[in-house]
Each structure stands twice: as C-alpha cells, then as structure tokens.
Design a protein that fits this description.
With 493 residues, the protein is of the alpha+beta class. It has helices spanning 29-41, 124-154, 185-197, 269-288, 303-315, 438-452, 471-479, and strands at 10-12, 44-46, 54-72, 75-93, 173-175, 207-223, 228-232, 235-245, 251-260, 299-301, 352-356, 362-363, 366-367, 384-388, 391-392, 412-417, 420-423, 428-432, 458-460, 462-463, 490-492. Helix 1 (29-41) packs across helix 2.
C-alpha cells in the first residue's frame, strides 16, 4: 500500500468541524469507516494549498445488487447481475458564501488519481483506505477548481446576482434498519421474455426490445454538518420500444415505460401484457396512416399527452439551474429555465394549481415513483406549492441558492453539473377548479372547427416523452427551437 503523506502529500492541521460520536447508528464496518474517516478529514490541508481548507465534506455510498435483462421476439438478448459499491465523495473549499463550484470547469481534476475500484468486502481497513484516497482526490479537485474560478473572476465581470454558493442545512440523523431484498431474476427474466414475444404476432413490428432493470440498494450518507443517514435505495424499471416502417419508407416508433421504487410495485403481468398489445396496435395503425400535412387549427391534447406536455412546460422549468462562470470568449452550452424571472407571474389560467409532493406515496391506489425519504444531499424533501391559481409561487430547489428562494426544499434529485446537484420534480400533482369531461371537450373542438371552416382538427394522443429517439434527432429538435426549450414531438396524432 502506498504510504500516506508520501504519495499524496496531505498534512494535518487544525480546522473546526463536527466531531463524530462513536455511537452514531449501529457499528457496521462501512458506517464506522465513513464516520472515522470523516472525523480524520476535518484536518485536511494540502501543502501549498493556501487558505482554501474544506468547509464541507460529504460521503455517500450506495451498496447495491444490479440485475438487467433484455429480450426480443421471445428470446433473451442479454442478461447480467453485478454487485457494486458506488461512492460519491464531495469536498467543498472556501465557505457557504463563496466556494469552488459554479465555474465551467468545477469538478475537473488534471492530476494523477490513486482512487480506483471500491472494495466490496466489509473490511474496515480497506474501506478507510478507499475513503481516504477518494477524499484526497476530491479535495485537490476542489483546490484546482477554486483557482480556475478566481482566475475567471479576475478577468471577467463578476456575476450580477451575487448569490451565495451553498445553503446551510439542518442535520438529519436516521439510521434505518435495512435488509437486502433478493431480486427474483428467474421471474423477471421469464416475464421479460414473455412480454417481448407479444410482438411476434404483429408483422408491422419490424424490431422490438423489452428490457428490465432492478437495483436493490442501501445508501449511507454522512457529512461534517452532522447528517447521518442509512436508508433503502432501490428501483425497478421495465421498458419496451418498437419500430415499424410506412410504405413510403418512414421509420415509425413507439415506446412505453414503467418505473417504481421497488420491482414488486410495478404493474401486474396481465396489465403489462395488455399494454404491450396496445403498443403493437399503435404501430399497426401508424403503418397504415396517411402522411400528415401542414396544419394550423384547433388541437386537443388527450389526457396522456396533456400530462406529458405539462411535465415539460412546467416540470422542467420549475427547477432553476445557475449559469456557470466561464472565461471571456469561451461560450457555454447552457439552457436556462423559462421561468427564471417569472416568480409571482401568471404562467397558467387561474383555475390551475400545481403541487410537487415527494412525500406522497400513492395516488388513486397507484404507487408513485417520485417518492423520496431523502434527496441526494441528505435533505428531507418537502411538498412545494409551485403554482397557485395560475401564478408561479416557488421553485423546486437543491442546496444551490437561486433567486427568490431561501433554502433547499429537498429536491436535489440529479447529479447536476459544475460542482452542484441538480433539482428536479418528484410527484407533480396538477389540479383544476374548472373541469370538463373529455366527450364535451371533443364536442367543443368540433364546434370550433365548424366555426372556422376547418375540415378536421387534431387530437394529440401521445408525445415522445421521455424522449426515446437518438442524439441526432434530439440535436435537431434543439437547433429548430430557436434558443427556447423544445417540446417533444408527438408520436400519435
């Protein structure tokens, strides 16, 4: 083993951090190694590193069993299982008001790295070594990022917003009793194969794939502010994609996907079988459908498409990302939220209310996949009233400060970029005080068509959301959007 202090060059000095008591949670080797290494890391300082010492250190480790299987036309295409320990080590230098994050190269490290594969055995010494090496690299990465950020500020105008870089958060301590739930690989392999065979009865389906993924995980998180967490962190997902071809050569595609916090909460095999058959019938209808033409006129979004539309127009805009600092003349690929300056403004008709609620687990007897006990920063998620009577009232936030908000509401659900976590919606619940049955809306559509002398109108049944095509089409969508955030194209009209 490489000698500490010789290969890495870490010295110890005094810095004020929370001292860890020896009875936080049960004393399993992983949590004990995390606690002890975090206690030692409070004294981190690199020779020649200047005054930039760590003010925030976080260890998050997910210990998980992974399983995936893919099938096509009733046969397994690929399958595999894996055991992983996925670490996420964060070291922030500076202070809450100003740290190394928010620059275009924040998090980029140019030096040698000694941290590599993560030990799977519960060996205390090996876990301490892995944590120490990962902490060393994260610290030196932060120092490099801070130097770049200061250099950029000295050669460019300072940002006008003058926001702080990190919100403090109240420590949370919850060490739940967790147990592994063995993934039934035989059951899900057989089910995936059976579902994929449904498309064999449809000659219009030229290619198809059904995939299942499951993660049975346990996550431990500790930081120097005093947060100590251990919780179940699992997910189950099943997807199907199919393609056909119209007589004129146009490639047609459709998809469906299910996701839940546990595989057992996915829909029943009977329900998914019916959904696969409906998916095939959609492709069958698309193959026979005439080519669309340019159209401008009344359009009605059916329930599924309406939900997909709101998820994009509202859901993707209520999470505000901060544009990173960069050097003069160096552009940055950044897509701002269209709601960034609309807090307190009307964004919908006054009969709309929207709540994002990560605490809700069930809706209409259906389990909700957006439920979270803690977000990626260890913050307890809170319900957020986003839109009240059509007026934008709040954003979903991580611990990265944004204008108009004062603290994280526990929505750090994405890995993020430029050294910061990304906020995202969880369970987006849309309610309306004025409603109209679908049959009446169709009659209104027909009346509008008659009034305007249109031979037909449009019913949008399904959008391509989440986007299921390749990167080339995605780039085409963005280039055609003229700088605004594009909306996924329709699949069924």
């Amino acid at each position: 083993m490489i000698q500490r202090g010789i290969a890495i060059g870490v010295l110890l000095c005094g810095a004020v951090f929370v001292a860890w008591p020896q009875n936080d949670g049960d004393d399993d080797p992983l949590m004990r190694a995390m606690r002890d290494e975090l206690d030692r890391s409070r004294q981190l300082r690199v020779v020649g590193g200047g005054d930039d010492v760590p003010y925030f250190i976080s260890y998050q480790i997910t210990d998980a069993d992974l399983f995936q299987v893919s099938a096509s036309m009733g046969a397994v295409v690929s399958a595999g299982s894996e055991r992983v320990r996925q670490p996420d080590i964060q070291v922030r230098v500076g202070g809450y008001d100003f740290d190394h994050t928010g620059h275009i190269y924040s998090g980029v490290y140019s030096g040698s790295r000694f941290d590599g594969s993560w030990p799977l055995d519960d060996d205390y010494t090996n876990l301490r070594d892995a944590l120490w090496l990962a902490t060393d690299r994260a610290y030196k990465t932060a120092l490099e990022s801070m130097a770049r950020k200061r250099a950029a500020l000295s050669s460019a105008n300072a940002p006008a917003d003058k926001l702080t870089d990190y919100w403090p958060s109240t420590p949370v301590k919850t060490v739940a009793k967790v147990a592994r739930k063995k993934i039934d690989t035989n059951l899900w392999t057989a089910r995936t194969v059976k579902l994929s065979a449904i498309f064999n009865s449809y000659p219009e389906v030229l290619s198809s794939a059904v995939g299942f993924q499951a993660i049975d995980g346990i996550t431990c998180l500790m930081n120097n502010e005093g947060t100590t967490l251990r919780y179940q962190d699992s997910i189950g997902r099943l997807d199907a994609t199919i393609e056909g071809q119209a007589p004129d050569g146009m490639i047609l595609r459709d998809f469906l996907g299910y996701q839940q916090t546990e595989p057992d909460k996915l829909p029943s095999e009977t329900e998914m079988t019916q959904a696969m058959a409906e998916l095939a019938e959609e492709i069958k209808a698309l193959v026979k459908a005439p080519m669309g033409e340019a159209f401008s006129g009344p359009t009605l979004f059916e329930p599924k498409a309406a939900a997909q539309l709101l998820a994009q127009l509202i859901g993707e805009n209520v999470a505000i990302a901060r544009k990173p600092l960069t050097e003069p003349g160096r552009p940055v690929n950044f897509q701002p939220s269209e709601f960034e300056t609309k807090l307190g403004s009307r964004v919908l008709p006054d009969f709309f209310n929207i709540l994002d609620d990560p605490t809700q687990t069930i809706w209409n007897s259906r389990p909700l996949a957006g439920h979270d006990t803690f977000d990626l920063e260890g913050v307890t998620p809170k319900p957020v009233s986003l839109v009240e009577r059509g007026v934008l009232k709040a954003f979903v936030t991580s611990r990265q400060p944004v204008k108009g908000m004062t603290a994280s509401n526990g929505h750090a659900r994405l890995s993020g970029s430029y050294g910061a976590r990304g906020a995202a919606i969880s369970n987006l619940l849309v309610t309306a005080t004025e409603t109209t049955p679908m049959a009446d809306l169709k009659r209104k559509l027909i009346d509008l068509l008659k009034d305007r002398g249109k031979p037909y109108g449009m019913l949008v049944r399904k959008l391509d959301f989440p986007f299921s095509s390749g990167q080339a089409e995605l780039r085409s969508l963005y280039s055609g959007a003229g700088g605004s955030r594009p909306v996924s194209p329709p699949l069924l009209v």
